[in-house]
Amino acid sequence: MVETLTHTTFDVQAIRQHFPVLNRVVKGKPLVYFDNAATTQKPQVVIDALTDYYKNYNANIHRGIHSLAEEATAAYEATRDTVQQFINAKQREEIIFTRGVTESINLVAYTWARTNLKAGDEIIISGMEHHSNIVPWQLIAEITGAKLNVIPVNDNGELIMEEFHKLLNEKVKLVSVVHASNSLGTINPVKEIIDAAHKVGAIVMLDGAQSTVHLDIDVQQLDCDFFAISSHKVYGPTGIGVLYGKRALLEAMPPFMGGGEMIKDVTFEKTTWNDLPYKFEAGTPNIADTVALKAALDFVSGIGKSTIRKYEDELLRYATEQLQSIDGIRLVGTAKHKVSVASYVVEGVHPQDLGILLDNQGVAVRTGHHCTQPLMNRFGIPGTTRASFAMYNTKEEIDVMIAGLHKAIKLLR
Ligand code: PMP
């Protein structure tokens, strides 16, 4: 269907019609939204799914026998099926709803890692991780006595894979790396990482916060053990995310949080756990946002990820060329394989000042360390200015940013 379209037939103006916020005027200028790696804007279908739930069938799920409870349960569980298909998981029980990538990683840290790691074991992360894929492992290392090792990053912002292979040995029990970097856009060679880690008996967790929206995800083909997804980066609502885990691992893990829904039977003497996936979904979940996540994923699938990717690649190519043509601008993150993230520094100009001046032109970019302080330290900079592109952005918007940059540089230098 739409999947067969090429970028030449990709109608960005038609896509933009689906996103009401793109009609916003900011500081007297049309909004140019280039902060998509922080969070994407929401199409009308997602907004409608939220209001439809609250207007028409708001009810608590699973235990109710009345019609509204049945409708809400069906909608909530339908999202699980959609997520399963979206990432090609083998079973729906392998899809756990969380609040986002941060919670998904913490779930694995406090259940799998806390019970399986001991002093002398090793965890490998990378030098380009988001703080949410660093700090939980530091906490777990402290509790268990395991050691945290880091794959270094080269000047282009790519993982130095020879160093990764050197770090691998039978003491390594877990490798947790970002699939695509939020600060640099780098797409990591995760298949190579997973296959090599499995050879030494380690399991692999992927942070899919940035990859899920841009790349085709097939968890069976990747053979990753855990995969974390954030709805708000895939045109869905905030406050909802996914942990994919291989069934055997999830079955063997203790629960993360205790409460209603995650139990089979409770007595004061002994409590037994519910079946997957409910063992990991304690309490009333975020029903509305889960329901709306389905609308977001259907929206993306309806256009086709490969179609979107081709278009976003074109935007990235154009932005990269334009940025490189400005004197004194240096791109940070020049990996061969990238998602549509352009991070840059301007000689003699603080990213924050630049961000404020661009905002005056209606251009929303992100400035700072992007929750990747160790990576910024690696490059010897306090932060970057980051323009991250989504399917609704245009080359004309990139021109607005470039014109704004020329103006800002003149003022700030
Ligand atoms: N990892 C990466 C690479 C991210 O970009 C983000 C969000 N900035 C996170 C993790 C955290 O995700 P969430 O907002 O879903 O907790």
Keywords, separated by commas or semicolons:
14 helices, Aspartate Aminotransferase, domain 2, 40% helix, 413 residues, binds 4'-deoxy-4'-aminopyridoxal-5'-phosphate, alpha/beta, Aspartate Aminotransferase, domain 1
Quick overview of this protein structure:
With 413 residues, the chain is α/β, with parallel strands linked by helices.
Explain the overall architecture:
The longest helix has 21 residues, at 67-87. It is built from 14 helices and 17 strands. Mean pLDDT is 96; it is low at 1-7. The protein folds into two domains: 2-42 and 304-412, Aspartate Aminotransferase, domain 1, CATH 3.90.1150; 48-301, Aspartate Aminotransferase, domain 2 (3-Layer(aba) Sandwich), CATH 3.40.640. The chain is an alpha/beta fold and 413 residues long. Bound molecules: 4'-deoxy-4'-aminopyridoxal-5'-phosphate. 4'-deoxy-4'-aminopyridoxal-5'-phosphate binds at residues 100-102, 130, 132-133, 178, 182, 207, 209-210, 230, 241, 371.
**Name of the top-level CATH class of the largest domain:** Alpha Beta
- What amount of the residues lies in strands? 15-25%
Span of the ends, CA to CA = 51 Å
User: Domains counted in the coordinates: how many?
Assistant: 2
Q: SSE layout and pairings?
A:
Blueprint (H helix, E strand, L loop, with lengths): L11 H5 L8 E2 L2 E2 L1 E2 L10 H13 L10 H21 L7 E4 L2 H16 L5 E5 L8 H10 L2 E5 L9 H7 L4 E7 L11 H10 L3 E5 L11 H4 L3 E5 L10 E5 L1 H6 L10 E4 L4 E3 L13 H17 L1 H20 L4 E3 L9 E6 L4 H10 L2 E2 L1 E3 L4 H7 L4 E5 L6 H18 L1
Parallel strand pairs: 3-15, 5-6, 5-7, 7-8, 8-9
Antiparallel strand pairs: 1-2, 4-10, 9-10, 11-12, 13-14, 14-17, 16-17
Helix pairs in contact: 2-10, 3-10, 4-5, 11-14, 12-14
